[in-house]
């Protein structure tokens, strides 16, 4: 609904700009104006296979990727920046960690290094960083796929890949669950999500955080020629300081994916 409202406002502003350029006062038309209704989404040609089949295929792949992801280790960097009006960083804080597979099932995270914070307004806590690390990487995997409406929006080029674009909305929001709302781009060859943009919704109380990030853009990387893992996440938002709005940015990068090798001593790792 918000995107529709923004589109309507943009159309009205553009029309108002055109009216303002006309000389003299506006005259009432002698005939009722002809109203041309413009659909919010243009009609798009159907894909080679039914959209329902594409959804079924990429959600099955999501389940496979999620299971494989739990068996991989990787290096992750979390960076938070305060920006000026030109978009240049004026302060930042960065943490780099190594994620290891622990014996049995699950993973440990060990902090490798962290920068001295030069943030002037944001005061980050370990809880804030844990909130970032817990952003669901595969929200449409497994049984969760049945909780969503998928609407096909056509094809779109993403880098070197041709993709199918799908709008994703939860059918309902149940207490205690976190749902994704936004758009996913699915590679037309692998039928795998390679990019997503949206936010997460829940009906339960949210954990308090100093980070007001809400919309996330996530890119994925092909790993071992058969998995698509999230490797770059970014969010741009504003931190409210009195009457002022301070631009802030979050970047999470994951790299050096490798099959997990258990054995990192728990005493040196953080769950």
Tell me the count of domains.
1
Largest sheet: 10 strands, antiparallel
Unreliable stretches: 1-30, 32-38, 263-271
Number of helices: 3
Radius of gyration, whole Å: 23 Å
Return the structural class: alpha+beta
Shape: globular
Report the β-strand fraction as a percent range.
35-45%
Task: Write a structural description.
By secondary structure, the protein is α+β, with helices and mostly antiparallel strands. The chain has helices spanning 2-20, 51-69, 126-133; strands at 72-83, 89-101, 107-114, 148-158, 161-170, 179-187, 193-201, 215-223, 227-241, 244-259. The radius of gyration is 23 Å and the shape is globular. It has one domain (53-268). The longest helix has 19 residues, at 2-20. It is built from 3 helices and 10 strands. It has a 10-stranded antiparallel sheet with strand order 3-2-1-10-9-8-7-6-5-4, with helices on one face.
Note the topology.
Elements: H1 2-20, H2 51-69, E1 72-83, E2 89-101, E3 107-114, H3 126-133, E4 148-158, E5 161-170, E6 179-187, E7 193-201, E8 215-223, E9 227-241, E10 244-259
Antiparallel strand pairs: 1-2, 1-10, 2-3, 4-5, 5-6, 6-7, 7-8, 8-9, 9-10
């Amino acid at each position: 609904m918000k995107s529709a409202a923004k589109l309507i406002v943009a159309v009205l502003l553009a029309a108002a700009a055109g009216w303002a350029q006309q000389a003299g006062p506006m005259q009432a038309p002698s005939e009722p104006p002809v109203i041309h209704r413009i659909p919010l989404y243009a009609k798009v040609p159907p894909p080679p296979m039914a959209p329902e089949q594409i959804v079924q295929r990429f959600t099955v792949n999501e389940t496979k990727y999620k299971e494989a992801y739990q068996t991989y280790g990787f290096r992750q960097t979390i960076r938070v920046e305060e920006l000026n009006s030109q978009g240049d960083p004026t302060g930042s804080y960065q943490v780099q960690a190594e994620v290891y597979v622990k014996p049995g099932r699950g993973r440990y995270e060990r902090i490798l290094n962290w920068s001295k914070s030069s943030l002037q307004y944001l005061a980050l806590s370990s809880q804030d960083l844990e909130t970032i690390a817990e952003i669901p990487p595969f929200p449409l995997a497994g049984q969760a796929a049945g909780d969503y409406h998928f609407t096909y929006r056509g094809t779109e080029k993403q880098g070197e890949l041709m993709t199918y674009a799908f709008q994703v909305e939860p059918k309902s929001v149940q207490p205690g669950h976190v749902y994704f709302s936004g758009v996913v781009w699915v590679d037309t060859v692998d039928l795998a999500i390679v990019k997503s943009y949206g936010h997460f919704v829940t009906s339960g109380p949210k954990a308090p955080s100093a980070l007001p990030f809400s919309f996330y853009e996530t890119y994925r990387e092909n790993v071992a020629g058969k998995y698509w893992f999230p490797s770059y996440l970014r969010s741009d938002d504003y931190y409210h300081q009195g009457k002022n709005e301070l631009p802030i940015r979050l970047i999470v990068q994951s790299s050096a994916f490798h099959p997990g090798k258990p054995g990192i001593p728990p005493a040196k790792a953080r769950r």
